[in-house]
Amino acid sequence: MSGVQDALEIKFRLIDGSDIGPKSFPASASVANLKESIISQWPKEKANAPRNIKDLKLISAGKILENNKTVGECRNGLCDVPDGITTMHVVVSQPPQDKGNKEMNNLKQNKCGCVIL
């Protein structure tokens, strides 16, 4: 009986409305472990795949979860779901634009098209 209470069924909702999971995680699993699981299960056909856990944010019960917290610490308010499966929202950060491309875009925007007669 205590084994059931020490685990949590979690599915991860992606920005397009599709899900990864559900999968069972122990209460001792860290949020960083959840993110690693998301990266390993990321659908191959989806664009904007995260490269590492820093590219991901998990949101549950309206709060962004910190990597060093455990599932058990984040559990408050999560267990009262009717089907026993908790849904966490996944946000993927866009990679920063590299400096060379940004400078080229700025140059293109700053050009003037004047004609002197």
Mind explaining what this structure looks like?
With 117 residues, the chain is an alpha+beta fold. The protein is 22% helix and 26% strand. It has a five-stranded mixed beta sheet with strand order 2-1-5-3-4. The protein is elongated.
Write a concise keyword list for the protein shown above:
cell membrane; 22% helix; five-stranded mixed β-sheet; 117 residues; Ubiquitin-like (UB roll); palmitate; single chain; methylation; alpha+beta
Major pleated sheet: 5 strands, mixed
- Considering the protein shown, what is the CATH homologous superfamily? Phosphatidylinositol 3-kinase Catalytic Subunit, Chain A, domain 1
* Approximate helicity band: 10-25%
The structural domain count equals: 1
CATH architecture: Roll
SSE sequence, one letter per element: HEEHEEEH
Q: If you consult CATH, what is the topology?
A: Ubiquitin-like (UB roll)
Summarize it.
The chain contains 3 helices and 5 strands; from the N terminus they run αββαβββα. The protein is an alpha+beta fold. The protein has a single domain (2-109), classed as Ubiquitin-like (UB roll).
